[in-house]
Amino acid sequence: MLANRGDKAAEAARDADESLALFTRLGDSWGAAEALSVRGESYERIGDDVRAAKDFRAAVRHAQQLGALSQAAVLKTRLAGVMTEPGQDAEAEALLREVLAEADRHSHMVEPAARMTLAVRLNRTGRTEEARAELERLLGTFRYSSLAMFEGLVHGLLAWTANLDGRYADALDRAREALDRARDPLGALVAPQMPAVHLMTMARALAGLGGTDRVANAARLLGAADALLPPGYSPAAQERTSHANAEAAVRAGLADAAYWTLYAEGGCLTVDEAASLAAV
Question: 17, 46, 152, 251: least buried by Cβ within 10 Å?
Fold first, then answer.
């Protein structure tokens, strides 16, 4: 649980260090794989993708040695998600396509995570049509109640995709849907950053739609999004890029002083108050 919180990730990494040392002494490969996975997640939460990738890669080897193919598939998906160094795109995409090609052999939780991670890769490399197809394939397929939270994440990724394509009205609708689903208690526990991320997506959509009121509210939404991020949270690479894009679009329509005034106003808003600004 600590590994999933940015403000506790360093503590989780230390605990995982101790566990890894213990399991290594005992020759317990399963325990070592779990410890490496937790430590990798901790590094991911603080934005250290290089060390996260190293741990996930080692965890994959342990899982494969044990014949735990579903666990290896989960770990490959996590590994692909943190392979952000130059020249790693092809390997990351190959890993994800390998996981998806064998999805029927794995746990029902493997495919949604792998397909969403692939969609992120496709969007980052300009293949938005392919990304949208991967995401739309997932919608309506969540037959298991434990996967219901994924549907909100898919709507959020579809909103991001729509923004990249300049389909701002669709992006706004998708982001609203995603935000509604992010209020689920399980979603709030697993991905507490998502309401803020969805507000950022809304800001980009409003700026794209244009108009004095929309651009002003977009600035407020950016302020709210930043203020509502969980303590210690380190945004993923695509979130950093999306934020920079949203900020540039908003500031293009405002003088600096006006932007910072509106941004500060947004920083005082609740999620519900901020969401109401997108209803224009």
Answer: 17
